[in-house]
Amino acid sequence: MARIGSLPAGGPVAATTRQTSAQARTGGRRGGWTLRGLVLLFLVLMLVYFVIPLFWLVVSATKTNDELFSTFGLWFAPDFHLLQNLHDVFTYDDGIFVTWLTNSAYYAVVSALGASLIATLAGYAFAKLSFPGRELAFAIILGTIMVPNTALAIPTYLLLSKVGLVNTPLAIILPSLVTPFGVYLMRVYAEQALPDDLLDAARVDGASEWLIFWRIALRLLAPGFVTVLLLTFVGTWNNFFLPLVVTNNPAYYPLTVGLANWNQLSQAFSGSRILYTLVITGSLISVVPLIIGFLFLQRYWQGGLTFGSLRS
Question: Measured between alpha carbons, how far is residue 180 from residues 2, 148, 209, 221, 228 in Å?
Fold first, then answer.
């Protein structure tokens, strides 16, 4: 009896089963931690990969032209020249950098607002209104997403040249108002965010289609609107090839083309190497508005991108 009492509850078979289950759980946890560790390591490597260029830009903007080529690139020099570099950027060539900064802000803001409104109107129409050729028109718009913008730069230049808009702000703004991906995103968002019963109730009360869109739909589509706004703002702010093709007057240059012009001057003449610090400091200034915009609007950005991923 004493020997039977010393056996584990449930007998030897149950004890072996419990031990096997415990080993399986331990192995599962170890496997989970191993996979989680690999994912964490991958994310850290990606973080370093994306942060190092920005860190190099910040460090280099604090150096003189000589220190830029004689010190370690990923750490600060003994002397701190950020304020002097900022002064040089804003005063070089009669302050042309301020003109480029203003141009970029003007092009990006007007293009982003216009493109977002057009994409919202089109997405709402494709999602909630019935008209002949709706699916065909939407399929054509989806197909244009696959066409790279660089392939359209020369045809766009020829069209703008025909109507006399080359070398004007409209040459940059008008092509930026068309965003096929924004139309697609707003259609998906409108299908999920706007209940048909709500729109039908407004129609029964006598509201016109324009009043329904302006008073009801646009407010519910605000997160998607902001998402398209940010996408277009960043795309126009960073656009280089189209402004390079359609403008040749420095007074209409955005930051991208202006800084590239300074960079070419730095490489063309050995006596003007001081422009390297201007290019680097100007590049640092050019990313500040984008960072501020994302920090203030990131909750709309995240909500707009993930809203259409779930279906009720």
Answer: 82, 12, 23, 17, 11
